[in-house]
Structure formats: C-alpha cells, structure tokens
Amino acid sequence: MQRRAFLASMAAFAPSLARAAKDPAVKDAHPVPAPAALELSTVTLEGGKMYGRSSPAVVALPKGRAKGEKFPLLVLLPGGEHTMQKRDHGCWGWWSDFKLGDTEAALRRGTLTDADLGGFATEAQRLDLGGRLAHRPWRGMVIVTPFILRRQTQLEPHGAMVTPFLRALVEWARKELPVFGDRASTGLGGISASGAWVLWSGPQLADLFGALVAVQPYTDGYEKPITKMLKARSAPQAMRLVTSLGDRLHKPTVALVEALGKDGIAVDHAAYAGPHAPSFAAGVGGVEMLLSMEERLVRPEVKAAPSAVPSASAVPPPTASASVAPVVAPSSSASPGAPATPSRWPRIALGSAAVAVAGGTAAFWWKTRRKAAPPDDPPASGGEPGA
C-alpha cells in the first residue's frame, strides 16, 4: 500500500515536473543583429553529418580586415540547453543568450566594468582581468559557433559523431575563412554540457587545437573518460577551466583539476561568484573565454605566445602544480556576495605547442550556403529537437 501511495503521489507531480522541464520563460536562441565590429553570417555544413543531418553554424569575421589578413580560429560550442533546440536556433546560443557580441565589444574597448562581468567578479578579480587585457589587448578572431549534439550518460555514442564533425569543421574553416592553418592558432571552447566535449573531443583533436577552454564544464561522472583522453593526447595543449562557486559542478571540476595535477596534467583554473546560468556566460564567463584564448592562441608574426601574466613581479613564477588557490574573504570594495580570490591564478607555460601533427584527411566534403544574419528575431517556434 505504501508503494502504491508513493507511485500515486509521483503521478500527481508529473504535470508540474513536465512544466519545470520546459520552462515557458526560456526562449530558444535566435539570430541577432551583428555587433558593430563583426560580420555575422550563417553557414550550413553539409559534411560531417550527425545523425545523417547537416548542421548550421554562425561565423563571425572582424570588420575592417586588411586584404590577406588572417586571424586565429576559435570554435565555440553552445550550452546544454541549446543542444536540445532546433539546430538553426541552437547555433545562435552564444550570441543571443550569452551576449558574445557585447563581450567582444568590451574587450575591444580595452576596459572592463563590473557590468561587463555580470557582477560576478570581485574588485581584485576585475583589476586582474583588466591587467591581463592591457597586457594582451584583444585583436579579434574568427569565431565559429556550430550546433552540436547534447551529452549523454556515456560520452562515446554522440562523441563518435561530435569528434569527426569538429575535425571536418576546422578543415573546412581553414580552406574557406581567413584563419591561420596551424594548431597553435586554433582553439576549442565550450560551456556547461559542451565543456565536456571540449575536455573529451578536444584532446582527441590535439593535432588541430592548441588551446582548450571550458567554462562551468559538466565533468561530474565523466572524470575517467576525460582523464583517459587527456593522457592519450598526441601533443600538449594549453588548458583553462573556469567555474563558479554557486554552480553544483564547481566541486567536481576542482576535484578533477587536482586529480589531473597528480597525474602530471597541468590545468589552469579560476573561480568566481555566480550560478550555473546564462548570466554567468554573458558576464565573466564569456570574458574569460575570449581573453583566455587571446592569451593562448599564437599569431604567426609572434614567434611564441607571450606570457599571460602582466608582469613577472606581480605573481609567483609558473609551477607545474595544478592545485587550486583557496578563495579568501571578500574585500570591502567587492560586490555584495562575491567572494574575493587571489589576484592571479597559476598559469602553466606549455612548451612547443606550435608543432602541428598531421591528422590525416577527413573524408568529408563541405558545401556551404551563406546568408547574412537577419536584423530581427524570427518568430518563436517549437518543432523537432536538435538531435
């Protein structure tokens, strides 16, 4: 009888649980007007199909580029909620939901305000980010934000499609876009669920990606397969993980960083205040993503990537330890509820990351249909899931 009563009570909650799973206040990602300094277009990638279907991507090119000028390539994977939307919506997640255009404009401006960081950084952290930006000014990149499949309980089934898709995407981009064609100039970034792809697929593509950055990555339960892939890499990669103290994934991510350190795999790590929510990605999470890539990706005219540290006197020398610095009490100038952290986090200098490793030729042919991004939002629509 008790079991029947329990099942009956769960059935009574089913409608409310279904409503919670699909919050009507959460809207699908959508096209947005291009930022002042960028050209936005969409492209349909006919090769490297996932579940037999082509996938769209948004391509952002810096305006005012000189003839023949090239840039680093940054592939940004969407948030978990975007992988469950229609494909032509999900690829816009970084732009409509995470406000990447505003973040890029702030970095281009050269100064960072508390509003740019979403209120999730202490004053010390804001100054630290400003110092990093002054040391490595934002010079622009080609950014591609594709739709990607969602994670599953096991990474392998969808990963068997995601990894070759990313290889084919990079090879297409190097042929069709004004980007440098070496791994040291190519980065892979992701947030939340797609952070797991960065840490699982990224190491398998070490011949393509020289830098990996994951914001609030979903690592809980994936520690073993992620560690396995990182140990099997064909070349070293600069890595940085960014977490937030209000994220339930914070502790698992910190534990992963520490475990990797014990295995001799160095990973930069930073923690801020804030929840696991789009507001974090639209604030300090997005700033960390772009600034960390600017610090780590090499431009051919620079023989080696300069240190991400503004001055040698400001921080202790790099160490091979991947331990995470403790969070200290906030200063009186910090935002309410935002815990202060040390003004610098460990940064690992990886050697010879610019050596390209031949990765074979992917058996994909790409046909593209490019169109200018519409100036206004399309009408809201439901329909098939992304996968």
How would you describe this structure in keywords?
Rossmann fold; 9-stranded mixed beta sheet; disordered N terminus; alpha/beta; 387 residues
Helix-strand pattern, N to C?
HEEEHHHHEHEHEHEHEHE
State the total count of DSSP E strands. 9
| Uncertain residue ranges | 1-24, 303-387
The CATH superfamily is known as Alpha/Beta hydrolase fold, catalytic domain
Helicity, as a percent range: 25-40%
Structurally, the number of domains stands at: 1
Rg to the nearest angstrom? 21 Å
Report how far apart the termini are: 41 Å
Question: Which structural class do the helices and strands define?
Answer: alpha/beta
Here the CATH topology equals Rossmann fold
Number of distinct helices:
10
Would you state the CATH class? Alpha Beta
Dominant shape: globular
The name of the CATH architecture is 3-Layer(aba) Sandwich
Largest sheet: 9 strands, mixed
Order of strands across the main sheet: 8-7-6-5-3-4-2-1-9
Report the average pLDDT across residues. Answer: 77
Q: What percent strand?
A: 15-25%
Structure explained in plain terms:
Helices cover 32% and strands 16% of the residues. Helix 4 (100-109) packs across helix 10 (278-296), helix 6 (156-176) packs across helix 7 and helix 7 packs parallel to helix 8. It has ten helices and nine strands. The longest helix is centred in the middle third of the chain and has 21 residues, at 156-176. With 387 residues, the chain is an alpha/beta fold. It has one domain (27-308, 317-350): Alpha/Beta hydrolase fold, catalytic domain (Rossmann fold), CATH 3.40.50.1820. It has helices at 2-21, 87-90, 93-96, 100-109, 123-135, 156-176, 193-204, 223-231, 250-262, 278-296; strands spanning 38-50, 53-62, 73-76, 142-146, 186-191, 211-215, 238-246, 268-275, 371-372. It has a nine-stranded mixed beta sheet with strand order 8-7-6-5-3-4-2-1-9, sandwiched between helices.
